[in-house]
Amino acid sequence: MGHGWEGVVLKLMRGKDFTFTVTGAEQVTERYRRLRLSDGGMLEATGVHPTMWVRLWFENEGKPHQRAYTLVDPDPAVGTFSLEFALHDGRASDWACAAKLGDTIEATVQGTGFTVPDPLPPRMFVIGDPASLPAVNSLLDAMPDTPATIWFETPHPSDADLPIRIDAERHDLRTVPRRDAGAHLAAEVRAALPGLLGDDPAKAFLWIACDAATTRGLTSYLRKELGIPKDRVNALGYWRTV
Known about the structure:
- By secondary structure, the protein is of the alpha/beta class.
- Helices cover 25% and strands 33% of the residues.
- The chain has six helices and twelve strands.
């Protein structure tokens, strides 16, 4: 399958193409699915970093269609990893639900990047949802000794059962039902965060990955109203409401 003009642009930006093979599947909840894949030599060629993601290519009405997914438990020694899908109406979810042993999918690595803060923050604050859960878990794994407060939005009741890798001694998990197109999540963060930041907010580290509009609004709030420095906020809208 050709990748269209997007594939050409990624090639010009030194994107690297690989083919993954499905080696297993697990239905985690009714709305969340995990696939295990072999990497087609990717991990050896690119290396691994926290929250690393890849672009998967799907065919949608005869046209190439790409979506980004975070690697789960990548193992360069054997060349495997998992991908997790928050299921909804869409081509990527359809493919994940139908994928079986031996199926292949094309992927491009380009644009991914994350560096663990140095020095480590005294506390980090994480705001995410099922779509960003793999990245949330990767972040927590990368800074296992750093205390964290996590706001996790749950669009569906079963999302409360998703495997968030928290340590009860260091992590404060706050599940927030999705209401009013993300406004409820934003209100919960605004109500609690100022009292949690401590005497020097510039030392905190904040990571936001939920729907694009909520992510933009919270990022503006952190920068303009709380005065958090730009380099202490890592924010990316993972999906858009339709």
